[in-house]
Amino acid sequence: MLVKTYNQKGEEVGQTRLPADIFGLSFNSDLVHQIVLSQMSNRRRVIAHTKGRGEVRGGGRKPWRQKGTGRARHGSIRSPLWIGGGVTFGPTKERNFKKVVPIKMKRKALLMVLSDKAKNSLIVLLDQLNLEKAKTKIMVEILGKLPNKGSKIIALPAMDKNIILAARNIPDVKTCQAKDLNALDLLSFKYLIMPKESIKVIKETFLK
Length: 208
Hints:
Elements: E1 2-6, E2 12-17, H1 20-23, H2 29-43, H3 103-119, E3 123-126, H4 136-145, E4 152-156, H5 161-167, E5 173-177, H6 183-188, E6 191-195, H7 197-206
Parallel strand pairs: 1-3, 3-6, 4-5, 4-6
Antiparallel strand pairs: 1-2
Helix pairs in contact: 4-5
């Protein structure tokens, strides 16, 4: 598959052939759905936490003696039956939402999403992407000249601090290294923008 290649000024400078073993796969929605669910679960942060009767402060002394008062027996004022007591069956920080899936499945799903973006012309390829200074204004001008309308993820062949700093404050734009691409991030953004060198990194990382 041939795709147009642009420079940083938005000018078409040629065409690049995308390797079929990465960008020519058929789309399996069931596999991609399974992988995306697992990646969303693995990113989930467990925040809600309620205290049980053993965690609530106080209640160390028996409120009254066991017999002879005419009242019901109680061992602690922090029982779930009491106001201010512990919570029964509430959410706790010990919950685990992690899902383990085989690496081959995650790689296959990623390549399927890349192939789908290529088929729908949602990949913008650059001959190179370099910034001398970490200026957001310059990054906005570059992205504005490229053929993309919508959210975008920029896949860099290697760590580039200037590009990361220049793009981090732009709405609906995310930067990452090509070796860290995943199906969830690709599906969360409409366009994939990357220099030609990123294709080599993707091939070396995910075709093993």
